[in-house]
Amino acid sequence: MGDREEWRSERGIGVAKKGRKDWKGANEEDERVALAVDPKHGHWWLQFGPGLLVGYWPSFLFSHLRSHASMVQFGGEIVNTRSSLGGGSRSHTSTQMGSGHFADEGFGKASYFRNLQVVDWDNNLIPLSNLHFLADHPTCYDIRAGTNTLWGDYFYFGGPGRNIRCP
Fold first, then answer.
1. Fewest Cβ atoms nearer than 10 Å: which of 87, 106, 133, 148?
2. Average pLDDT taken over every residue of the chain
3. pLDDT: is 30 or 28 the higher one?
4. Cβ–Cβ under 8 Å, residues 135 and 166
5. d(CA 46, CA 57)
6. In the chain, where the domains are located
7. Are strands 111-113 and 152-158 parallel, antiparallel or unpaired?
8. How many helices (H) and strands (E) in the chain?
9. Closest by CA position to 109, among listed 18, 166, 27, 19
């Protein structure tokens, strides 16, 4: 982890994965994502896969996170920049979250996070505790959680946005 701020353009937040197919023609792909604090400089690094450091957030941006975080959040988010304010139709956006499939459609369709872990004070990966799951608009996007020996703590999430149950 270096001394300068850098972002890799081939992978990053909001960057679509190359060769992306719709779910009918795609194989499930896992991608390891890690976010960790550099103990020497206090920068928060984003890493994809084994060793691809995408970039970091400088320590001065997060003075309250100098040495640790007290909460971790995983999930998806959509933004509706064309919401109707001050009258007119207030229909929900048709922006998809994840693959655009609801969580209960499971493996092969719904997006997921698995093997959810955090790094402890001794730099060891440990499972999460005290998990809470929330879907603000469950008829538009939802979430289903579980635990097993292969995937550890995991959840499926997503949805199509506006649909017959989410006008």
1. 87
2. 79
3. 30
4. no
5. 8
6. 1-14+24-71, 89-167
7. antiparallel
8. 0, 8
9. 27
Which residues, at least 6 apart from 44, have a Cβ–Cβ distance to it below 8 Å? 35, 36, 37, 38, 56, 57, 59, 62, 65
Q: Rounded distance, CA 131 to CA 105, Å?
A: 22
Q: Report the range of poorest mean pLDDT among 71-75, 138-142, 153-157.
A: 71-75
Share of the chain above pLDDT 90, in %: 30
Query: Whole-angstrom Cα distance, residue 140 to residue 41?
Result: 41
DSSP letter for each residue of 65-94: GSS--S----------TT---SSS--PPP-
Query: Tokens 């939802």 label which residue?
Result: 142
- Round to whole Å and give the CA distance between 76 and 24: 21
